[in-house]
Design goal:
Length: 340
């Protein structure tokens, strides 16, 4: 079958995002001839199925799918379909903050798509509000052959992932993360912290906090990492931290878990369901709460942390692996065409 995979993020981002790559690979593994497109003119007319990420951007392939009378499956995977307000500032995020034309495109796409998928149960109610249709849940997944425990690698860092841009710096609580570090350094002065993400329009604010708290020697930004390098960073991490105020799945958290890395997370969005009872929860609006849990894990017996990491890795293998997502997508594709 000829399948068009579409995302309007552009080729560079498509090839750097695990969620895009996993679905391109899944569709190929299922034996389909996959064409990747990222703008309207690249979308082929002769596709048997349009498989698209993001609701508003999927309006473009929806046009061609309707004209050619071919099915379109839409992954509504992000905040653009969520009715978020920031828990600390009250500012609108996600669907509430998008321009009017994107709101219209999102609603039309969700109404007319042949199938709608979300990446967690957390998203179901908000999607229903937008289109009065219940989406199917197909969790995001991790390639557990790549993201795996590597006992030969020494764990050194405390790691987080976010772009240093005004939006992510707020929603991922970059300021809270940085302000939690000084208390950790009082007990562990040589501890190194890594932020994986590109530098953007919040870099001045970032630098001000770093310099105010004398963190320059302990905090490092790493940008432009290839997908193939990501497992090693998780494997070399003592702790992975994600302080998201909004999260529809938490793929970086899942990847870290798969590598056996203890995770400290907020109690927001889909994160509690992702990490289960072995996740370490904090108040993501309180630096002291974050630093206390970091100190607790760093002070813990190493064998205890190893066992914790193994349980987290097992959870990913049993619930959020690549093969589980592949079988779900296969099932829904076959079910749809069987009905037709």
């Amino acid at each position: 079958m000829n399948v068009c995979f579409f995302s309007n993020e552009g080729y560079d981002k498509i090839l750097k995002q695990q969620y895009s790559l996993q679905d391109i690979n899944i569709l190929s593994d299922l034996g389909h001839n996959v064409t990747v497109s990222s703008n309207f003119f690249e979308i082929p007319w002769k596709s048997d199925l349009y498989f698209c990420w993001w609701a508003s951007g999927s309006f473009l392939p929806l046009i061609k799918a309707l004209i050619s009378r071919k099915p379109i499956f839409v992954i509504a995977g992000g905040n653009e379909v969520m009715f978020y307000r920031d828990s600390l500032y009250g500012t609108p995020i996600g669907y509430l903050s998008t321009p009017f034309y994107k709101k219209i495109a999102t609603r039309i796409t969700l109404y007319l798509a042949d199938e709608i998928f979300v990446v967690s149960e957390f998203m179901i109610d908000d999607v229903i509000k937008l289109c009065n249709r219940k989406p199917k849940v197909v969790y995001n997944s991790v390639d557990t052959n790549l993201f795996r425990i590597n006992e030969s690698v020494k764990r050194e860092f405390i790691t987080t992932v976010f772009n240093i841009e005004k939006g992510p710096f707020i929603t991922k609580r970059g300021e809270i993360f940085l302000k939690s570090i000084p208390a950790v350094l009082e007990k562990f002065p040589d501890q190194k912290f890594i932020i994986i993400g590109r530098e953007g329009n919040a870099i001045s604010e970032f630098n001000q906090i770093v310099d105010t708290h004398s963190l320059r020697n302990n905090v490092k930004i790493i940008s432009n990492i290839d997908n193939s390098e990501m497992p090693l960073y998780y494997q070399k991490s003592k702790i992975y931290i994600q302080l998201s105020d909004t999260e529809t799945f938490g793929l970086s958290v899942a990847e870290a878990m798969s590598c056996g890395t203890p995770v400290i997370v907020s109690k927001r969005g889909a994160l509690p369901n992702l990490v289960g009872e072995d996740g370490v929860f904090v108040d993501h609006n309180d630096p002291e709460s974050v630093s206390l849990k970091m100190i607790e894990l760093l002070s813990s017996d190493n064998n205890k942390n190893i066992l914790l990491g193994k349980r987290l890795s097992k959870r990913i293998n049993e619930n959020f692996s690549y093969n589980i997502r592949k079988e779900k997508i296969k099932y829904y594709i076959n079910l749809y065409f069987k009905k037709k």
